[in-house]
Amino acid sequence: MSVASARRGYRLLRRGRLGEAGRIYLLTTVTHRRQPLFSRWHLAAAASRALGGPGSWCDARLLCWVLMPDHWHGLVELGGGESLAASMQRAKGRSARAVNAVRGGSGPVWAPGFHDRALRREEALLDAARYIVANPVRAGLVRRVGDYPFWDAVWLPGGGSRG
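^ Transposase, sequence as received from the core. Prediction below:
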């Protein structure tokens, strides 16, 4: 199978997918051309403030997230007001504008699209949250999760305010 036909098949599978209100999704998006844009602290801080901010998610609820140098993972509980794609598009758009304002330019920050996986059980939620926050440790960026500045989880005291 060619790369082009695989891409067409993937788009066909995704067509019309709206997400289910109340369901929790593990979301992943990557930077444009997988550039390690967020290895620069000031850009990562700007993106984190935008991605972690309540205005980025409207009636969806961001439960947990981490911003890595070239990608972002998050756990989002979808509200009933809009599709998963619309929620993600807003968050990516807000963060791209914030990053471009800091770097004094314009241009793509994120690659088109995103990956999502619906979680099915409560245990899966905890496993996914652990996977997300441990990303910087697995990548060798820090020794302990708490040493990495660009993540948050609602289960922490004051959760939802890091970044």
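The chain has one domain: 17-153.
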